[in-house]
Amino acid sequence: MNRTVTYILTAFTVLYATSLVAQEADSITAVKRDTLSATRLDVESFITIDTISCIGFEADTISFNGADWSPLFQSMEQLNDTAQGEKKIVSVIHLGDSHVQAGFLTEALRIPMQKAWGNAGRGLITPLKITRTNEPSDYRFTTPDKWQYNRCIIGKEFSSRVGVGGILIEPVTQSINLTIETMSRHGEDVKFNRLRLFHAPTDSFPQLLLDNEPDGLAVHSPAAGETCYSWDTLTNTISLKGKNSLEPANAAIYGAALENGLNGIIVHTIGNNSATYDCYNRTEEYGKKLASLAPQLVIISLGTNESVSSVFNRERLEQQIDCLIQSIKKESPKTLFLLTTPADNKLRKRRRNKRGRRVTYYVENPNLPLVTETIKDYGAKHNIAVWDWYTIAGGKGAYKTWIKEEGMRNDHIHYTPKGYTVQGNLLFQSILNAYEQHTR
Questions:
Q1: Which domains can be identified in the chain, with CATH numbers?
Q2: 3-state class (DSSP) for residue 373
Q3: pLDDT tens by residue, 33-81
Q4: How far is it, in rounded angstroms, from Cα 425 to Cα 240?
Q5: β strands within 226-364, DSSP E
Q6: What's the pLDDT tens digit per position in 16-28?
Q7: Kind plus residue range of the DSSP H or E element containing 66
Q8: Is the backbone of residue 264 left (phi > 0), alpha (psi -120 to 50) or beta?
Q9: How far is it, in rounded angstroms, from Cα 389 to Cα 339?
Q10: d(Cα 230, Cα 97) in Å, to the nearest integer?
């Protein structure tokens, strides 16, 4: 029988430290790890989902491997200190592949984190649909113009100039019209009054103006390749317009980070279908690009696409993990990391049946345990925290249960929205539990 998750998205608070008792204590959320249930008193808006019966709740912990997360937890604790007037933001990056690109996984992590420690904004969004791929359903970029694009994809040549989100779009017309809109899926506040536009680092980048100029508008460029717009009133829609006389490459746009001027957590989502560690390593100065988001924690959810490779090599994977970690550390030496392992999946094969028709079938993925062990071993050797999702999700053969209980798609590799919500909730709870232990 499935256990039930009462996953509160619209009004999630936690009693995790005595300092919060003095704040608005209109209700309490108690999280029970053994049943994966969250019960909140006096709450009308919540989402109830069935969890997956093969989940190993006892394994839902972070192996810190000697990493000291106390600076991060101290920063998170200070977010609730309203006595000091300066703006305080804790920046988290979730970097990954198609499991992250769809947005459901990071959303299930971001919303409860922001309910617990404050919502400082949606964070990084990228114009994925303009590059003809899927994007999360809580925002959209729209444009009447024609663009050429590039994105980091395994097995294909891509421009190393792609931005922090792993993509770029370049105008091929003399006008730039781009509208950005955020949508609330679960009642969370998605409005913003600050937009950081990431673009080609050229001094002559086109001047883009905000349509219907809002009150208090201020525009400045804090660094090459970034233009920051801020204004007074929160909104969920903004339009950028301008003329372009440059070559497309010099007018490239990479994405935008949205903020609301409040203290709290920002969880930046960076996901690209079929991405690997090597994809991000082949991106020019990627550590420097990530540093623009000032990350205090980088969660890396990669390894699935390495596991399905026919030429997998453990030593090469370890080198690629190290290359990415070191490039980020070089530009952000105080950043903490959390490596996650990929879940159980199967390899898709095709063959012809007796009638000559091509049929699809699935076989065991022999590389998956090797990828998991490589990631865990790297974390243990280099004092980097690891969240072993492979084990938590049920280990070898768990895909059968995930498909049966509607947590995994029939492609035997990607989750359903339900599955990603369960995964993101468990990741949040593991971080919350570690935070609670620190604050005791």
A1: 61-120+263-392+411-440 (3.40.50.1110), 121-261 (2.60.120)
A2: helix
A3: 333 433 332 223 334 456 899 999 999 999 999 999 999 999 999 997 7
A4: 35
A5: 226-235, 237-243, 253-259, 264-271, 297-301, 336-340, 346-352, 358-364
A6: 332 332 332 222 2
A7: none
A8: left
A9: 10
A10: 31
